[in-house]
Design the sequence.
């Protein structure tokens, strides 16, 4: 008569122990994800004390707790990384990986674009292809590195990408810059298209500072400073007039 009861009790103890065991298993780490939409920017503090400024249409993700200091980034962000000698800070951006100990830098890695750009403000940054993590290119302060998605190669720009962090500072600075480079910065900042009627216009030089610039106003100031005509089109702007001879 006691045997069935002993069997039932044993079964109950086994079930109870199983429930206790499952209930005390550590839950998988949660993913923290931060997104921005059109014309939206965010500033956030990571668990390790590092600061991040996230540009529009971007997404950043990391494991809750951030014990390994690894994040993924789609879009653009500026980082001020807290230095930890024994804990590198890694950013995965598709096929490229950026690794630092403690520094400030900008990463532009929109999936729709054919390259990943890293521009270093201070410290040093290592940029490598995800498939070749043991062959990084070291970027010092004031340098920019490019990862070409088609060739999967990393290269260093001869000069730092101009106004790379202008989206964060809301300030565009041009110091005797080639108009070709000026227009590229304006196109990037305002997400618009700017063309010229004569390619020699690209060889002109231009100096100015725009604080919290507005597109129409900036284009009018640029055209006036270069003595050019400005035409607004459905997709952007066209600068018309006489260009400048390239310097020998």
Sequence:
């Amino acid at each position: 008569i006691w045997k069935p009861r002993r069997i039932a009790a044993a079964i109950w103890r086994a079930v109870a122990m199983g429930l206790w065991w499952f209930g005390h298993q550590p839950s998988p780490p949660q993913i923290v994800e931060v997104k921005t939409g059109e014309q939206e920017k965010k500033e956030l503090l990571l668990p390790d004390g590092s600061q991040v400024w996230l540009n529009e249409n971007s997404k950043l993700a990391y494991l809750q707790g951030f014990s390994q200091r690894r994040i993924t980034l789609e879009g653009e962000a500026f980082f001020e990384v807290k230095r930890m000698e024994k804990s590198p800070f890694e950013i995965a951006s598709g096929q490229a990986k950026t690794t630092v100990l403690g520094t400030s830098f900008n990463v532009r890695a929109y999936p729709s674009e054919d390259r990943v750009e890293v521009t270093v403000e201070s410290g040093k940054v290592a940029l490598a292809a995800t498939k070749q993590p043991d062959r990084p290119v070291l970027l010092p302060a004031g340098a920019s590195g490019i990862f070409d998605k088609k060739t999967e190669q990393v290269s260093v720009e001869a000069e730092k990408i101009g106004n790379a962090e202008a989206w964060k500072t809301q300030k565009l600075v041009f110091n005797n810059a080639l108009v070709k480079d000026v227009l590229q910065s304006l196109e990037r900042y305002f997400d618009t298209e700017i063309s010229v009627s004569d390619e020699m216009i690209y060889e002109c030089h231009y100096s100015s500072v725009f604080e919290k610039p507005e597109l129409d106003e900036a284009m009018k100031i640029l055209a006036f400073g270069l003595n050019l005509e400005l035409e607004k089109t459905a997709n952007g702007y066209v600068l018309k007039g006489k260009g400048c001879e390239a310097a020998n």
The chain has a mean pLDDT of 90.
